[in-house]
Description:
Layout: H1 2-26, H2 31-47, H3 55-80, H4 87-131, H5 145-172
Helix pairs in contact: 1-2, 1-5, 2-4, 3-4, 4-5
Amino acid sequence: MEILALLCLIAAIVLLAALSLIDLKYLILPDELNATLAACGIAFHVLMAYWYLDLADMALGALVGAGFLYIIRYIANKHYGRDTLGLGDVKLMGAAGLWLGGEGVVQAITAGAMAGLVHGLVYAFLLSHKNKTKFTITNLSIPAGPGFAIGILAVGGWMYHSFVTEVLHDIFS
């Protein structure tokens, strides 16, 4: 069962990379990939007999992840009068909550927002340098998915590093 759980983790990493690349190129996070990430999270915890998170923690994580981002999206869309955060980002953090639980998904959102801020600042700097214009972040639009993926990977790496090292040790020893 541990090998299958490890495969779920590997699939999650691949899915987060694919979601990030698609978001960077097309500004969309496909529902099919978000749903697959969620299914892998559920499968992981079932295979691990809910060792890391129980069903209530998973449900809370999904609710907090999707709910918190949906509220931010709603407020920002009202304030700016346009789409500021896509529903794909909301679904991504809902799927992440299944992996990370309530506390973990809040940490992932925070880390992801910081990664997104750094991404935006670097992008704005490079854009201003390329176009020989004044540096500004006004009206800057970047996809949020890659930043959130970094946050998810950071928190997930922290939560599951001992599992990965134990399974790899068992495989290679």
